[in-house]
Amino acid sequence: MENRIPEVSFYKPRLEDLWFREAMMADPETMSYNNAWGGTIPFPREKWADWYDFWIANPNKRFYRYITTGKSRSFVGEAA
Q1: How far apart are CA 57 and CA 71, in angstroms?
Q2: CA 64 to CA 75: how far, in whole Å?
Q3: Lowest mean pLDDT among 5-9, 39-43, 50-54
Q4: What pLDDT does residue 1 have?
Q5: In sequence order, what are the residues at sequence separation of 6 or more whose Cβ sits closer than 8 angstroms to the Cβ of residue 75?
Q6: How far is CA 46 from CA 17, 18, 24, 42, in A?
Q7: Does the pLDDT of residue 68 top 60, yes or no?
Q8: Cα-flanking dihedrals φ and ψ of residue 75, to 5°?
Q9: Phi/psi at 44 (nearest 5 deg)?
Q10: Residues facing residue 67 across a β-bridge
Q11: Domain map of the chain by residue range?
């Protein structure tokens, strides 16, 4: 059987898509690299708009995208 690498692409998240970033930052396994500094990081909804303006709204200064995969374009990670 042939192993196929799924197609991946970048997706510019909308403000309402930041639920995925909130979930990643709250996941102990995903954030295990950060255990020495406290592990998971809260990212409550009230911080989303300011964070979005800083990281996404001004594309000439910063790059932030979700990584998606497959035909469903499921969110699988982030790139910044």
Answers
A1: 27
A2: 13
A3: 5-9
A4: 55
A5: 11, 17, 20, 66, 67, 68
A6: 14, 11, 17, 11
A7: yes
A8: -70, 130
A9: -70, 155
A10: 10, 77
A11: 19-79
